[in-house]
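The passage that follows is intended for readers who have already worked through the single-chain material. We present the inputs for a multi-component assembly, then the predicted structure in tokenized form, and finally a short commentary. You are encouraged to pause after the input and sketch how you expect the pieces to fit together before reading on.
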Amino acid sequence: MAERLSKAVAAAERQPAPRRTRNKPEERHREFVRKAIELFAEVGFEAGTRELAQRLGVTQPLLYRYFPSKDDLITAVYREIYVNRWKTQWRDGLLDETQPIRDRIIAFYEDYTRTIFTPEWLRIYLFAGLRGVDINHRYAATVEAEVLRPITLATRKSFGLGDGPPAAEEIELFWTLQGGIFYYGVREIVYRFPMAVDRSTMIRNAVDAFLEGVGSVLRRLAESPETAD
Amino acid sequence: MAERLSKAVAAAERQPAPRRTRNKPEERHREFVRKAIELFAEVGFEAGTRELAQRLGVTQPLLYRYFPSKDDLITAVYREIYVNRWKTQWRDGLLDETQPIRDRIIAFYEDYTRTIFTPEWLRIYLFAGLRGVDINHRYAATVEAEVLRPITLATRKSFGLGDGPPAAEEIELFWTLQGGIFYYGVREIVYRFPMAVDRSTMIRNAVDAFLEGVGSVLRRLAESPETAD
DNA sequence: ATGTTAATTTATCAACTGATAATTAATATG
DNA sequence: CATATTAATTATCAGTTGATAAATTAACAT
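Having made your guess, compare it with the prediction:
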């Protein structure tokens, strides 16, 4: 399978040295990362540096002038996707009390899924998780601090409940909603299931059912003593 | 001179071939698959056949007496995990009307997560999904037919709603619950997050909130004409 | 033009990959 | 005990991998 491909590649590379024109280092750097994201999303991190070079129309050793090792390239990929694409306005929108809680949560998930429901975001996130890097830990901590805590507090408030720091059990409850929506994306983008319900409808129904039912559980948790610590 | 000596020493020290005793082919086959599951769960499918052979205390070419190719070994691994570990009693339990719907659903997720919340099950499932094999499609079809449809129908009934075939939107609603619980396992087992809430509590809260709120959405869907098709 | 600098290429390494052929030895069978 | 069978080994191949050193050449300053 890979043999035939490599043979074709070898034939193509035997060309009389296309001798690419030079580029500014910064542009190159960004270009490398961009194409690396594309490739890693398709194949995973085992993708060869030669394959990447070929897609860039460049020789393989050149990559090592810009990244000391393949791992450093991978790190740059992480930064680009999971740090640079985070929007601080998500938190702000969730805390904007001029809007009803339902609208705020739905608007957040509409925009959030627009950001992360791409092969690049989701596939590389799962690849990273399986690899055991700490990206996922750091990202989840951000989600909890910037999204789930605000959602929990805002929801509590909308039910007329106290506004102390959210208990672990409360946060976990909203993780279930987050996970349910996230996994819709995994099914659609990663597993490539034919989805019978469109994204917006799914979000609306999930949030409606959740908000309708979460009140009773939150009330119970507010009354019972904190068991989890 | 020194080289010749070291070469002689190396030859002498080259273990006198531990020469494993023979085993029955069937046992070997099962043993290979078992250890392959272990290895693939750890490293992924790029795990080397030599590493596997070493863990089995066996030479690498021997693997090819039992599996024509590495891909055939991987297929055997899939079968073992995702076909052989499926319990038909899950469906039966969900349809057992002598029990309240809440108890049925909680009991199901308790047992189901006991089966799939292992590194082997979850990691290999994600590896397979990223690889683009059809395992995940087939498995999801089973989940939908054997779990989500029964849950949907049973829940509908418990709310005194009609009992026609479930609409896609209804099924999708229960996929959100399924995905939320599934993703708890991914966070715990794959990402290795320190979980602040134990599995049973998470399941109970998630199911309670869901059942409390799902009624209103189901009623709305029952009244409005089928938009999704 | 001329020389300097650095971007890019060529050539190459050692380690590792899945897979095959030939050989050895343990077991069952007569 | 002799012999056939086959489980398991050794040896090896061809291809791929990440990475390094040295040679080349494009761009730019003078």
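Commentary: The CA atoms of residues 116 and 122 of chain A lie 6 Å apart. Residues 17, 19-20, 22-23, 25, 28, 58-59, 61-62, 65 of chain A lie near DNA strand C (CB under 10 Å from a C1'). How closely did your sketch match?
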